[in-house]
Fold each of these.
Amino acid sequence: MVKSLFSILIFPGFLFVSALSLVADFFDRKLHARLQNRVGPPWFQPLADFIKLLAKEEVIPKDANATMFCLAPVFALASAATAFLYIPLWNTEALFSFNGDIIVVLYLLTLPTMTFFIGGWYSTSLFARIGSVRAITQLFAYEIPLFMGILSSALLADTWSLYGITVFYNNRPFFWLLNIIGFAVSLISLMGKLEKVPFDIPEAETEVVAGVFTEYSGRFLAFFRLTLCIEMVAGAALLAAVFMPVGLGLGPLARFVIFIAEVFFIISLISLLRTIFARLRIDQMIRFCWKYMVPLALLQLLINLFAKGIVLR
Amino acid sequence: MHDSDKFKIPMGPQHPALKEPESFSVALRGEKILGVEIRLGYNHRGVEKACEDRTYTQDVYLIERVCGICSHSHSTCFVQAVEEIAGLAVPKRALYIRTLIAELERVHSHLLWLGVAGHEIGFDTLLMYTWRDREVVMDLLALLTGNRVNYGMNTIGGVRRDITAEQAAEVLKGMDILEERTKYYIEVATQETSIIKRLSGVGKLYYPDALKLDAVGPTARASDVDRDTRRDDPYAAYPEMAFDVITDSNSDVYGRTVVRVKELMEAYKIVRQCLKNMPDGPIAVKAPRKIPAGEAVSRYEAPRGEDMHYVKSNGTEKPERVKVRAPTLANVQAVKHMLKDRYLADMPIVIAAIDPCFSCTDRLVSVQQLDNDAHQVLTWQALHEYSIEWHRSRGTDFTALNKKLSKAIG
């Protein structure tokens, strides 16, 4: 009981993932800044931002549905932080592992987007409403390639648990190379989920101010910001666990270090991609996802089906 | 689809996409723009009226502050008009220096625009890069004139500062750096896929519409309108400069981008010619304090398009009337046309693509009905009372505050 509580709240639960996400946010911002030829923030900037926002007054719009408006950020934070608990960090097994946990992680990572929609919709601001509609429209575009990309890897391993996936790829070295396309598709879809350039359409500042977050302030905005950071870490961790299960034989500590390095590698890829592109329009984004990403994910599915039928027979 | 799908969003007077307060009220259906209402007038400063209360020399500095970016354009345009009335023969060296500063100003304005355009389409990397390189030309302007903006270079009858050989060498060095960087930006703007996706086909303004709506500057030239005051009605040292007028037939935001980046290359060419052929001699002639009665119109190709000043003098030391037609006023009507049937996401870049400068544009126009001779003139007192009443009817009462203020002032 005490051990479980410790795991959930402190390590590798809420406290650890929050700290890691703030470090990851700093890493992302600093790298983004250096790539843009700027100096970038000092290391404590994300934490300072978070504390400052916590101390600020929160304003709830007069017409807003106060319950939904206030609950949305809490749900978002809780679901993003919970998703991280199911990802194996230093061995094959996560804290709470069961068959089907990969679906639960994907589901928990979808929840924040739903809460963005609900929060934006119930804040009754025009900009927030446009933002929330864009967020939900975008969801239908990136979610399917993301699921297909990640689940095709599970299909090859013939399991629905992250535990099974890590064991499978650990026993068969270099099998993860088969999933390169799936990795690329998932990474780009993840950028849509995290609302990063070129997919930052729901919060495009020059069009809809801050989109969903326009009316949010103080604690609630801090929760949403932290949610996005944790979502980034959890998403990167999921990708690392599914697509890069290397170094498992070297012992827990080495695997942990390698795992964190993988997470930061994925985040640096995201930073790089968001530096070199302009924001797409929502119609272009959806066309891109359905025209290129879904066929690529289907191709990955085919590769894995053939691999399963021929190589693993 | 029924009517409840339609809604109006206020872009401005305060909005992150706008650098100055201006109101665009957008009627939307989903993401599609049904119509746009443009309302200018949030930045009216009464510069024209203020000019009538100041001497010509003071006016040069006031007019320079019409715009923060093309300050040299406005002051040159104004002094040209005054010099024409006074019949002053401005020395050649002064004309060359004016041209040099004008082209450096164009370089900094176009680089600034490229960055802003990048920001509007969510490409902040381009903003950071261009604004970093813009520092080169800003430093050069500070070196030549002492200021990064509002150079204070012009005076009636010439310029106020001479250019030394060392300064000229510095400028040439800067041009080499900028030329290399600009070549890179031309490559980025014409080859980067996501930029082209966001710019190409957006904000179409075809040749006949550009003529009909009186577009000027790069906005018109991107619609294949071959117009440039520097060539068509040359002023300063432009008659002796060899340069090309850049036009483009894309007629969209992409074309406007291409025109601007290519104009940068022409600007470097002109700067080099200026420095190479600059004649020796005085930099100013003495202007009379009182300008003889008369009137003049002066045209000038500012970075944003043709700028026009009208000055009427009555033989005293103060002008009777000064009229400024900033290029944005000519272009702003085209925006409405360009936004027809576009998406909300295109709105920031379409507005930005005319390189708007709203505070230069704001004018007070009193419209007199033809069939009704009577028109109302509000005195200062009446206007003051009207504003108090206006706010009170909307629930804000400033009476207590006004009492306090008048007590404090005494």
Amino acid sequence: MTTTLAPSTDRASRPTGIPGPSPRGRKPRPVGGLVGSVALWAYAVGALVPLVLMVLNSFRTTADLYNKPLSMPWPPSVDSYKVAWTEGHFGDYFLNSLLVTVGAVALSTAVSTMAAYALARTRSRIFSVLESVFVSGLMLPIHLAILPVFYLLDGMRLVDSRFGLMLVYAAAGVPFSVFVLTTFFRQLPPELEEAATIDGANTWQTFVRIMVPLVRPAVATVVVFRFVPIWNDFLFPLVLLRSREKYTVPVGLTSFFGEYSTNWSALFAGLVIATVPLILLFLVATRQIVAGLTAGMSK
Amino acid sequence: MTRRSGLFFVAPALILFGIFVLYPMASALSYAFFSWQGTARGGFAGLDNFHALFTQEPFRSQLPRAFGHNLAFFAGTMVVQNTLGLGIAVLLHRRPRTRRALQTLYAMPYLVSPIVIGYLWTLLLSPTFGPVNALLRQVGLGSLAVPWLGDPGTALWVVILVSAWQWVGFPVLLYGAALGGVPEELSEAARVDGASHWQTFRSIVFPLLVPAIGTVSVLTFIFAMEAFALPYALGGSTGNHDGATDFMSLLFYRTAFENGSTNAIGVSSAMATLLFAVIFGGAVIATRVLRRTEERIAG
């Protein structure tokens, strides 16, 4: 099974410029016609309605939710957000999640970019072995190693530490990041570095000033695509964090759902708070997300 | 790049990955072959921990039940992805103007954390104020307004369907990319020869989709065997009432962290090792079957 990096789903996978000459000179018609279109939009509604309900219900009061389960949030009430953010400690959880996620993505992308550059630009045996070691990590179910990870961090006094959690996520992101970035570096012509060397730049300067700016699109894909699973991860913080003020959002949610189980509108608000960063990310980086999702696809 | 500077570039990633991924993965396997007194490792225990999984309660009865649920989860997800998911991808194909927008909409649910999705659906399906049952009553289907998650007979179906709803956009994306790679001339030629839409799909397009279907199957298998956050949010760590939504990862979590037994580490590591073998073995077998199918179609 060979893996390829498809930079963009639909456009790149189809050979461009060859629209497929039609013998009768007509465009291929979509399957299903109008009925198909209606079905597709209907399913889109089905995919989104639960998420829309989550947002709408977060702006209603609990009494309103109980009395009229199917009405609109008018006038909108933001009390639920106040409860969740301060009393429910979502302010802390949110900051912790942001800290851990951004730190892990930054660290893992930095070390992976360096490693990928070396792997793409060296031919010796050691490096091809190292590359297969990294890439084999794509298949490792790291969650099953939670016990050894716990005792490893325990030995380093990093249990119940946001920094420890961040290191684990950074390490877990290395295989995917190295894989995507190595593919990308290989596509860059070696003449670029030769020119830089002639101009007197050393390897590090060439890397930082010439190569890194050129792989920015791939770095963006890696950053976006690693952000989502780290932000959403539940098992590692559940096991590795002990004190409430260090919880990330997913673990915070479980304790919030335990304590505030009757304040329904605050529960909806908590869910929205947990999701907002991903929606923002999605709006600014749809393209990178789509590219990342098809990155491991086999041809 | 010289070998020395190459190693300098690779070193940070290798150290991080080695300490926090490779070392724990390797020791996770070794943990299972020792007996443990709390966190202190005792003598070599051979296969005793594995033996305990199949002879001692509660594992003897809970392990097969949980594994059965994982398999049902896999089967249910596969059915939805390869009917609804493939169907949507085929309908989307050749609708270049709306494809991007619809794919984006279908992708929204799976960017959201499974823990958020799980809690969202417990609220939406709530028997007291959930809009789902309120809607059913409104349209005169009150008899269907059951406590979906409270009833052991429906709870597992809820987990499977919620997960399928969340993830169906993913096969749509992969199948969409694969359909884009099918040369237009082939299906066009078949249609000129008088083949219907369905015949063209079955004999021309479908065989070319086999690799993508294989990829989706392998990824779904790994995903289904590791399911943790969604069942945790929908049914708690004990898997709802009477373990109706118990899964392997939940059982592992309970054994490792919520079980007072002195040999908790040994038994839970045996469970993790077993699960790892199932995931790895399943993925290898699936890949091999797939390759054979491809050869048969090609030959």
